[in-house]
Design brief:
This protein is mostly helical and about 70 residues long. It has helices at about 5-30, 40-69. It has one domain (about 5-69). It is built from 2 helices and no strands. This is Cation-transporting P-type ATPase C-terminal domain-containing protein.
């Protein structure tokens, strides 16, 4: 059974939304250990940049593997 483009995007988006929350929480906990002190707004913005990149990567990889199958 093939996965539609729409479902590929839904799967990639769900993965990224969960990852975004984990990434921001990790930044809040880990950055201060390395002497990096930024605002929550900056943490959220940095997380968002990586989330967008992750969404694109996840979608493209899913489509490549669907095509190979």
């Amino acid at each position: 059974m093939h996965q539609s483009r729409r479902m590929s995007m839904v799967e990639a988006a769900a993965n990224v939304v969960i990852g975004y929350g984990i990434a921001v929480a990790t930044q809040v906990l880990v950055f201060p250990i390395f002497g990096i002190h930024i605002t929550m707004a900056d943490d959220l913005a940095i997380g968002l940049v990586f989330a967008v990149v992750s969404l694109a990567r996840g979608f493209m990889l899913r489509r490549v593997f669907e095509r190979l199958r």
